[in-house]
Design goal:
alpha/beta, six-stranded antiparallel sheet, 11 helices, 23% helix, binds flavin-adenine dinucleotide
Length: 502
């Protein structure tokens, strides 16, 4: 059995970067284990992974998905929580909106005891990951692995032009570069899917690193638990193409994402002692924060039917233009975002008002000691009254914006809409709770923080408190969500921690 210096669990947004960066040192042997299939070239990548135009509406139709389901609110039907199960992880299936967190987000991370994560400290790593095609200045990277670009006004689809005009008519400012700090309003999304191709970590980071003799990438490798000698991690037990194996390594880095990382820690005896005891899992470390503080950006979908001859454009991204704003009475800048687009094949216009800085938190718990059984996920969206208040305002705003004259030639009838409930706060709350949906940005289930914080699971470098040789680096360690789609932030975080480890 070869000796590995670093064993990485999960090849997603974070794991793909760590494997590529740590194997730049040719003397350092890296093993990357991925539960899903590995596609070893751009040519063999299936089209739905290679091309990214937005989130499909029937998310159950995603291929390469873990197929999680979750409780959104007490009254909503179970919702799907898609997560990529493939080389590149969720970066291979996501909608490619490439927005950064804002300076206020990182002030919050610092306030939670993470003084190495100020805006000034993270900005260089946001620049490292990207090669911005439109903006060349101190805020943007020009030579990173991931190309980022925006659709210009002349390329916008008819519905996107109408949305842009409606937002301006309602008084929102233009935001031509949404990745500039302190900007707000309506403008083109930065996207990491130029030339139709989705730049996942599988393409942008792992493909160029594959030939390195010191990097081994193993697909169809499901890690079942982490192995220990006392409080030192020594490797993992995994099913490799169905066959059980134990693999030793000098260092284990868990990059299995916001759902599977806390699941793996708990299956390995690191988690709330009482909960582990209820499943007869021997406790290696009582870490009450594992699985707590589940965050997301709760959304609510509004739907309209569009005219039957609305032009199909299969190669255009659904999300070309976006709106961010601060809710009335909110102290949180840019705490709201609205996703908008037409799916011509389905003749529907969707509008998804989303709380981009929600105060409600959820929880993840094991229901089985078998890694193939998903943990119970309860997001408890809108349980905080301020989240409901802001979403009521957002739903009313979106209905008003789609009432702009620019939509008269586009929209035919309402399909999912609160109707009379718009007039009454309690009725609208009930409608919002019944239609609550994920924003696809699960995070913070193994949060980063100082040892003095009883709910902190890892320190500022991603090392698990109280355990040697074990790191967690992915969306699960965000100490607090950011006011943006989180992929760019997870990539930044992986680059920064990889730099520290090197
Ligand atoms: C449908 C969808 C649309 C999205 N759209 C956007 C967007 O437009 N913009 C944006 O910024 N963000 C978006 N996101 C979110 C973003 O892509 C994720 O937050 C981010 O990719 C998470 O990165 P990660 O490294 O934490 O986890 P992941 O990228 O999910 O990686 C985890 C990896 O670990 C593997 N794994 C898990 N368990 C095991 C195990 N036991 N053994 C071995 N391997 C394991 C998984 O298969 C996976 O490859 C979207 C997500 C989804 C699902």
């Amino acid at each position: 059995m070869p000796h590995y210096d670093t064993l990485i669990i999960g090849s997603g947004s974070a794991g793909g970067i760590l494997a590529a960066r740590l194997s730049e040192d040719s003397t350092h042997r890296v093993l990357l284990l991925e539960a899903g299939p590995d596609y070893t070239s751009a040519e063999t990548l299936p089209d739905d992974l290679k091309y990214g135009f937005g989130t499909p509406s029937g998310i159950f139709s995603l291929t390469h998905d873990w197929g999680y389901s979750a409780t959104a609110t007490p009254t909503a039907p179970p919702i799907a929580i898609p997560r990529g199960r493939v080389i590149g992880g969720s970066s291979s299936v996501n909608a490619t909106i490439f927005l950064r967190g804002i300076p206020d987000d990182f002030a919050q991370w610092v306030a939670l005891g993470n003084d190495g994560w100020s805006w000034e400290a993270v900005l260089p790593y946001y620049r490292t990951i990207e090669s911005d095609q439109d903006c060349q200045d101190d805020f943007h990277g020009s030579d990173g692995p991931i190309p980022v670009g925006r659709y210009g006004p002349s390329e916008w689809a008819e519905d996107q032009r109408a949305w842009h005009a409606a937002c301006l008519n309602a008084g929102y400012p233009e935001s031509p570069d949404m990745n500039r700090p302190h900007t707000t309003g309506v403008g083109p999304y930065p996207l990491n899917s130029r030339s139709r191709v989705r730049y996942s970590t599988a393409l942008a980071y792992l493909l160029p690193a594959r030939a390195r003799p010191n990097l081994t990438i193993q697909g169809e490798a499901v890690v079942q638990r982490i192995c220990f000698d006392g409080v030192r991690a020594t490797g993992v037990a995994a099913l490799i193409e169905g066959a059980p194996q134990e693999i030793a390594a000098g260092r284990v880095i868990v990059c299995a994402g916001a759902i599977a990382s806390p699941q793996l820690l708990m299956l390995s005896g690191i988690g709330p002692a009482e909960h582990l005891g209820s499943l007869d899992i021997p406790v290696r470390l009582d870490s009450p924060g594992v699985g707590e503080g589940l965050r997301d950006h709760p959304a609510t979908g509004l739907l309209w039917r569009v005219r039957p001859d609305f032009p199909a454009n299969d190669s255009a991204h659904f999300h070309q233009v976006g709106l961010r704003y601060s809710a009335a009475g909110s102290d949180f800048f840019n705490d709201m975002i609205v996703y908008f687009g037409v799916r011509p094949a389905e003749q529907t216009l969707f509008v998804r008002p989303t709380v981009n800085y929600a105060l409600s938190t959820g929880r993840l718990r094991l229901t089985s000691t078998d890694v193939s059984v998903q943990p119970a996920l309860n997001y408890d969206y809108y349980s905080h009254p301020f989240d409901r208040q802001r979403q009521r305002e957002a739903v009313r705003l979106c209905v008003k914006l789609v009432g702009d004259p620019g939509f008269a030639e586009i929209v035919r009838e309402t399909l999912q809409h609160p109707g009379a409930a718009l007039q009454d706060d309690d009725a609208l709350d009930r409608w919002i709770l019944a239609h609550a949906d994920t924003g696809h940005h699960s995070s913070s289930t193994c949060r980063m923080g100082p040892a003095s914080d009883p709910l902190a699971v890892v320190d500022q470098r991603g090392k698990v408190h109280g355990i040697e040789g074990l790191w967690v680096v992915d969306a699960s360690i965000l100490p607090e969500t950011v006011r943006a789609n989180i992929n760019a932030t997870v990539l930044m975080l992986a680059e920064k921690i990889a730099d520290g480890l090197k």
